[in-house]
Amino acid sequence: MRLNNKIALIFGGGQAPSDSPAAPMGNGRATALTFAREGAKVMVADRSIKAARAVADEITAAGGTAQAIACDVLEEAQIKDTISQTVALWGRLDILHNNVGLSIEAGDAPITEIDADAFDHIMRLNLRAMVLAAKHALPVMRNQNSGVIINISSIAATETYPWVGYKASKAAILALTEQQAIQNAEYGIRAVAIQPGMIDTVMAVDARAKAWDRSRADVAAERAARVPMKRQGTAQDVANAALFLASDEAGFISGISLRVDGASGCRIG
Ligand SMILES: NC(=O)c1ccc[n+]([C@@H]2O[C@H](COP(=O)([O-])OP(=O)(O)OC[C@H]3O[C@@H](n4cnc5c(N)ncnc54)[C@H](O)[C@@H]3O)[C@@H](O)[C@H]2O)c1
Question: Which residues are catalytic?
Fold first, then answer.
């Protein structure tokens, strides 16, 4: 029970839909389940209320405490309302976990081909939403004199990556996290980022298979081959890192980015 009685809010805590019943778990769902298993009360916020409910129901069925809420992080009013409802329900906010992020599915492209509207959309979804979530969560956390913000970046922020929207937004998240850490340390608030590498999720693998008209197995094998450990990670690997960073065990850790990438980030050249 490493998060006993803590209140966690996960934006993008649902699971990307898939046609396959054997689809791997996504980062948001794995993190929600892990936080709840460790004693947190979890607000599962997702654009898709169906996806949020499915995860909240899974938590409740396992004996945990969770609530689902519909929230599109493109809308500031919905972010604000979600935070207010979390605090109204459980009285505080200990962990803000920002999981929403898209690339290829949102029209990302190399810089010479990027559509301006697609770029704006990706920046709003990947970066602006995290700024706004913190804008409305920080007053609550400052009032408590405690809290943790976990921002999901990507190894794409620091390794070679072809599409400009994802690269730029995920890199900006690292700077945002450092700013959140330094400007809120005096209030006992920590801010950290996680950089997942090649993780086997529906959003990452199936979206590419669809966009490139290739099989899932083919895309998964190619991704695994690019990792020094020769396998993709799982959403549980990311959730385990989030659990540690959210817990009091990480109480003196702030402003960092933790790579969860099978050593991909160590490769230069
Ligand atoms: N899978 C990977 O290989 C990988 C690698 C690096 C980083 N990441 C990052 O991990 C995060 C999660 O990725 P995942 O593939 O595990 O997906 P996921 O399965 O956690 O799904 C993300 C959830 O976000 C929700 N969502 C999408 N747009 C939303 C919006 N506007 N408002 C609210 N909710 C919205 C979706 O409905 C979905 O339930 C992303 O930030 C991604 O960039 C993933």
Answer: 166
